[in-house]
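pasting input
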Amino acid sequence: MDNAHKPSVLKQELRNKVLVLGIDNPPVNALSADLRRELLGVIQEADTNDKIEAVLMVGCGRYFIAGADVREFGKPPLPPFLPDVCTRIEACNKLVVAAIHGAALGGGLEIALAAHYRLIAADAKVGFPEVELGLLPGAGGTQRAPRLIGAKASLDLMLSGRPLDARDAHELGLVDRIVYGEDMLAEGLAYLKELLAAHAPVRRSRDAGGLADHTKSRAAIEAARSETTKVSRGLFSPLKIIEAVQAALELPFNEGLSLERNLFLQCIDSPQRAGLIHAFFAQREVFKAPETRSTKARSINTVGVVGGGTMGAGIAVAMLDAGFPVTMIERDEESLARGRTHVEKVYDSLVAKGRITQEARADVLTRWTGSTSYHALAHADLVVEAVFEEMTVKQAVFAELDRACKPGAILATNTSYLDVSAIAASCSRAPDVLGLHFFSPANIMKLLEIVVPAGVAADVVATAFALAKKLQKVPVRAGVCDGFIGNRIFAVYRAAAEHIMEDGASPYQIDRAARHFGFPMGPFQVADLAGGDIGWAARKRRANTRDPKARYVQIADRICERGWFGQKTGRGFYRYPEGVRTGVQDPEIEAIIDAERLRAGIKPNSFTDQEIVRRLMAAMINEGANVVHQGIALRPLDVDITFLFGYGFPRYRGGPMKYADTVGLSSVLADIREFAQQDTLFWQPSPLLVKLTNNGADFASLNQSA
Ligand code: T1G
Ligand code: NAD
């Protein structure tokens, strides 16, 4: 469609010689090519139009401008480019004022900084979140912001990505006026009238003196560089941001601007940008499930939690934090008191850290009640069961809930592995039963697997997604199978790690390789954190159903037989000297491994870290493909989000399926076929991986909305 017939995304109205520009590009006024083109055209025209004395920019809808249109990145860039639009706005000889409401983020803040004066609504936010997308403020932000607020404040803003509220932005000098009225247009016009009456000059951010104190600025830049080098864990764009701000200090404005452009384009080309932008959109797509499109959620006002152990208490805190009244059910008074203590401990530590007041703690705990009688749940709209991971125990609990809960109450299980359909079938209201699989600690971990058994009602699933939003969780819809999406794939990843260990690599090298890849912990550190006894119990439970031809590494069993369950027992794959969370390597573990290799008749090989990562990722990707192929996950992006928010997968790689697309499915498949020469049973290429590779397609091609 030619531009002439495209709906305009920039409303224009002349009010007493003030040209009002209404930025109207729903849903968040992203700076698309059309908006950039219209904005540039209007500013150029305004500069020479005698009927126009000044320009006021306001946003339509919830935000001023949420930034560049992120969907354009990775595609051939379309002119006009945002830096040029900002430069033209700044160069305008008529006063240009930006009236910020909701949020001015990234390119949106850069547009505002190009304006000559800025006012902000008291509840609005401004910020540079580009670093979260693997980018840097590429439209003059790294050159104008330091001149306005100094090197340190700018670097804090750009390296953290965290938005500022209006008061802090005003104190820093990023904005000139905070307004409290609802009508930003009226506030903007009043402020402009004041400026015009005062003959306020055109004031360009490029001329501001925030970098005058060279010594202080240089010190801030060097401090940021050493801190970032320490903590950025291989991230690309943070160091580019520092380089750009250094240019603002050392170079004339226009030269700094072109260096910023080069650095920005380097970030655009980095695979980290692709991974982080994939994560940004995938994190929003996972909320879109067939049930959320077709049905309305039920209302949830009161919540019950059965079990006050590690998970029950964490789930209760998550619900209390979201404002729900919570009733906890336990087996007996002693267990109930323990459950209460678990909940109190969370808030005690928040008080100790000064994050909440004693009063707030007391207030939130007034919404906690406990009982050993299921009758206390008669009015609950939702009940989450988190008792022992045993089918008979859970079915007994659901039978109790079936008797006690009101019709229409949603009954959820927090099981990690058990068959949710079998639990649902154990009561008379299967359409109201689903899995809500929280991750430990449940009040912290963002991931929530919504496990959907065959017979559940669509509005129950829709309610679970609405609940996730209220709990500020990231939901992923999962089908019923052993371990759903996350634990199922993680079990295969863990098995691959054990094979490499038995074949010759030490668990410490494997963990180091995984950390270098970007995981905060390697598989054996995770085993020690989760507790070896849980995995051991699961392995014993599966012993009768395990394929006798499948490879089974017994090293972990040997360690558990000694009662070494990891951090909880001070020893596992690592030793944990008193009070030390980071484990130390244990030569006795290597001795156990050597003995097991001997028993299994395995002559140890050496592995490079790259080989280890190839095997770990091939296992994860292949099982991820199986999970998508079998419809347990709706799309590959659901697998990605599961691992980003539940298993510490490095966000800049976008998740295992995005990573597979980055390295190329054909090379992943080639790896699997190479590894299958030693073990055809474990390394069976997923039919989906074979099909996509044969069709020259990738996982992204399956990420269309479900
Ligand atoms: N571009 C394109 N689409 C965007 C977008 C953006 N910048 N921001 C949001 N969307 C889509 C989003 O995918 C969703 O789509 C819908 O808008 C509503 O979003 C040169 C390089 C603004 C705080 O990083 O943080 O500027 O799912 O569900 O909860 O220096 O969106 O409905 O199809 O998140 O109310 C920098 C990103 C860009 C801000 C609103 N800006 N956005 O939150 O709604 S890089 C950002 C947000 C840049 C320049 C650089 C949030 C929000 P759909 P939503 P929300
Ligand atoms: P836990 O042993 O810490 O707590 C279980 C609690 O359930 C105990 O307090 C026990 O008294 C109570 N309980 C047992 N039978 C009961 C009954 N009939 N009625 C009321 N209360 C009863 O276990 P947990 O780690 O909190 O695990 C609970 C569930 O969550 C399990 O299904 C587990 O697989 C799952 N899960 C655990 C984790 C984790 O990391 N621990 C993560 C996700 C899911």
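fyi The chain has a mean pLDDT of 96.
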